Amino acid sequence: MVEPATASQAAAPAMPKLKDELDIVIPTIRNLDFLEMWRPFLQPYHLIIVQDGDPSKTIKVPPGFDYELYNRNDINKILGPKASCISFKDSACRCFGYMVSKKKYIFTIDDDCFVAKDPSGKAVNALEQHIKNILSPSTPFFFNTLYDPFREGADFVRGYPFSLREGVPTAVSHGLWLNIPDYDAPTQLVKPLERNTRFVDAVLTIPKGTLFPMCGMNLAFDRDLIGPAMYFGLMGDGQPIGRYDDMWAGWCIKVICDHLGLGVKTGLPYIYHSKASNPFVNLRKEYKGIFWQEEIIPFFQQVVLPKDCTTVQKCYIELAKQVKEKLSKVDPYFDKLADAMVTWIKAWDELNPPAGGSSAPNGKAA
Amino acid sequence: MRTSPSLLSLTIDSAVLNLSNIADLSSLPDHIVVDLFLRTLRAGKLNERVLKLFIATGKDEVFSLIRALNIRATVIPVLPTTIKDDEIDIVIGAVRSDLTSFMNEWRPMFSRFHLIIVKDPDLKEELKIPEGFNLDVYEKPHMDQVVGSSTSVFFSGYACRYFGYLVSRKKYIISVDDDCLPARDPKGFVVDAVAHHITNLTTPATPFFFNTLYDPFAEGSDFVRGYPFSLRTGVKCALSCGLWLNLADHDAPTQALKAKQRNSRYVDAVMTVPAGSLVPISGINIAFDREVVGPALVPALKLAGEGKFRWETMEDIWSGLCVKVVCDHLGLGVKTGLPYVWRTDRGDPIASLKKEWEGVKLMEEVVPFFQSVRLPREATTVEDCVVEVANAAKERLGLTDPVFARAAKAMLDWVNLWKSVAYISSSSPAV
């Protein structure tokens, strides 16, 4: 039986790293009680709360946290007509938090995620591990069989060329979950009692050219390196699909990271996922996605970004163009989505004007 | 007139016949329980459940009978029912002569299977192998007989195991270095590397999309949300690469720099190496489907300073890159991760580094070469693929260093050897 750590088990680190360079983005529609569990690890950091649903409801933030909170009214006020690209009644709205942040790094977590315990019983400081992942290089060009060579106690294996051992900057750190696994609705319906109890003590770089299903429950990224590509799409109210927000972002960022020579890591840290959402509700939200992903995946696998796309924004606009060209025939939704992707970039650039007026390329084209 | 059996006797006989319906024996008087136990034994109806039933009565006489008769519940490892023991060969390349402790440590895992032990032709001493195994031993004279003395140069040092791959008649091959012992998992249980490799080879691989929960076919795991359904059947797994605790497979410079570093991290995962992604496959602990991919494991890259420590070789790395390229082309899978073996401390990395540095340098050419190889659509068999890779190696690397030209030729010779030796019908006896 896997159990979460209690609040008293979590021990605050002596020196919280990146305290002034990292924002924690939390979407919520209920409450933020879960933060009590995380207090020792997260209290030093600034929170950006994105309140979904009814803006007239008051979301109480536990005392002692430094935060800014945005509800739907705030989003509409700040973005004006561009607010149409931010989803309503879906946790996809969290990407608004990425946009308004002024920090270099983002850690995002769901409000039903608690602190996990490692096999020795020690509470896992997920943020600390994400920071370790992000501040050490990735190795996407050749697979290391001992996983992350930059972890303590590990290294490159025999046969790994020395010229590839410097690695590339890590743009994304994708964490995992114990207890309720992130299954799709059909799998949930078939295996309602399955719990993830396997603690896999590894971090690894997802190789270049390989796509993966990115889960937004426990995620960190470098906003400067990849932020504009972290758009979580059009989901929820008025949209034909839900629970594909993080998937969509994951496919986009992976293609762009591969193009710009950036790395994506997956594995540790684990969080304890406590709440299983209703599989019937999930099925209704997902079912179109289950069919559409059969077309979407080949699309992303075959995307080629031109060499002159040297910034994330340029890559993303190009991607939006290709989505409109090639996926609209799957469903008119993709036409809307492509437009929303462009709106998102416009909004991002407005809220994040480049310093000094000239936009410097933030990555090398592959 | 025969005395008719007593009512008690008939009752006990009836109880023996109906043991499957009995859930509790503790209310019975001692002497009846003992009688029932003895008659159960005589009828051959003692199984694990029934034994537990008798033990649960707590009767001393039952316990003393159990002890006296040495009755024990045996734990039988559960292998997938589709694999028969006679489909597996365990191939050991003997680079050292005394295999006694190695074989004895692996006995619980190896004893069910047929073993092929191949002696390094350069080894002068007699092999020391303990009794009690079903095995065939091959030495230089066998190699000369089967492949002719001019080509036996393939099989020196660690590459001697490839001779075993060649002459095996089985479907699955499992191969570990002779300085590796069974490992223990974090709970203290001994890892059955053989069983685990077989599980890896007999469950599908998923190279076209990365599953963030790693092997979806492992117990307690599955495909995650967002994994396309059409890709969930997976492909056949052709190669299973295991890992090593204690002395990990680092190259000499790395191990020399971190002299005290030992691998103590047990990563409880198996995963498929994605298609298009190359990987340095260590030969220390591998298993493969010989029928599907046999010819692609090539004893080709022999370093000028090659020696008898893994730090002094790169043959397995070249071979593994070839296998991965072929598997990617043919839509086969390669898995990495569990099982672990325990690799004993042996040798001195600094001494190896002084002797052999070339191998590390050569990787700078080798990896980009394999990354750039494109196999034509017409190459539909493993042999054709290996020939294509060999020709590309000769063309693109042949002039860089003579070791590559030799490797390319060795690959072509290997394919021919495989065709003439390995495809003898299974009815003819092994050499």
UniProtKB/TrEMBL annotation, chain A:
GO CC annotation terms, alphabetical = cytosol; Golgi apparatus; plant-type cell wall
Task: Please give the Gene Ontology molecular function terms for this protein.
Answer: UDP-arabinopyranose mutase activity
Keyword hit for Cell wall biogenesis/degradation:
yes
Annotated glycan sites: R158
| Location of the protein in the cell | Golgi apparatus
Q: What does this protein do?
A: Probable UDP-L-arabinose mutase involved in the biosynthesis of cell wall non-cellulosic polysaccharides.
Q: Which family does it belong to?
A: Belongs to the RGP family.
Q: Where is this site: Required for activity?
A: R158, R165
Record protein name field: UDP-arabinopyranose mutase
Q: Which UniProt keywords apply?
A: Cell wall biogenesis/degradation, Glycoprotein, Golgi apparatus, Isomerase
EC annotation from Swiss-Prot or TrEMBL: 5.4.99.30
| PANTHER family, alphabetized | UDP-ARABINOPYRANOSE MUTASE, UDP-ARABINOSE MUTASE
Q: What is the lineage of its organism?
A: Eukaryota, Viridiplantae, Streptophyta, Embryophyta, Tracheophyta
Against InterPro entries, the record matches this protein to: Nucleotide-diphossugar_trans, RGP, RGP_fam
Q: Does the keyword Glycoprotein apply?
A: yes
Q: Which GO terms describe its biological process?
A: cell wall organization; plant-type cell wall organization or biogenesis; UDP-L-arabinose metabolic process
| Major site of localization recorded for this protein | Golgi
Q: Spell out the reaction equation it catalyses.
A: UDP-beta-L-arabinofuranose = UDP-beta-L-arabinopyranose
Q: Name one Pfam family in it.
A: RGP
UniProtKB/TrEMBL annotation, chain B:
Quick check: keyword Cell wall biogenesis/degradation in the entry? yes
Provide this UniProt record's keywords sorted from A to Z: Cell wall biogenesis/degradation, Golgi apparatus
Q: What is its main location?
A: Golgi
Naming one, the record's GO cellular component terms include: Golgi apparatus
Identify the domain of life. Eukaryota
What GO biological process term is on the record, naming one?
cell wall organization
Write down the Pfam families for this protein, in alphabetical order. Answer: RGP
Where it sits in the cell: the answer is:
Golgi apparatus
InterPro entries named among the record's database cross-references: RGP_fam
Listed GO MF terms:
UDP-arabinopyranose mutase activity
Q: Which family does it belong to?
A: Belongs to the RGP family.
Q: What is this protein called?
A: UDP-arabinopyranose mutase 5
**Species this protein is from:** Hibiscus trionum (Flower of an hour)
At the highest ranks, the source species' classification is:
Eukaryota, Viridiplantae, Streptophyta, Embryophyta, Tracheophyta
